[in-house]
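New to this. Help decode both lines:
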Amino acid sequence: PLLSVSGEALGSLVVLWRGVGGPTPTTDLVLDLLGRQLADLIERDRADQERRFAERRKDEFLATLAHELRNPLAPIR
């Protein structure tokens, strides 16, 4: 399983092994490292998407606020 730092399941990494016998202990370590790196990348991507969404919402709010403040003051000018 691909687990986040908090233990949330992000997905799974499936490896099909062809050949006689199973993977060596070294191969197991490499696959474990690969799974951890994939989980980190998934978490970073999710955090980046959340950040972009929050920035977009902030920009929309500021644009709306600027519009609402500017329009009522136009007749006074």
User: Anything to note?
Assistant: Residues 2 and 39 are 5 Å apart (CA to CA).
